[in-house]
Amino acid sequence: MPTLTLSEFKITELDAPLGAEVTGLDASQSVAPDVILQLKQALRDRHILIFKNQNLTDEQLLNFAFYFGSLYVPPDDVPVLASKPGVTPVVIPISNVDNGYTGSGEIPFHSDHLWTPYPSSGSLLYAIEVPPEGGDTYWLNLNLAYETLDESTKERIADLELITYNPFLQDPNGPRPKYRLDKSIPLISPVFPHPLVRTHPESGKKILYLSYSNEVEVVGLDPQEGAELIEQLREHLNQPRFYYQHKWSVGDIVYWDNQATLHYRQAFDPNYRRVMKRVSLAGSRPF
Ligand code: OGA
Ligand code: MN
Question: Which 8-state DSSP code applies to residue 81?
Answer without folding.
Answer: T
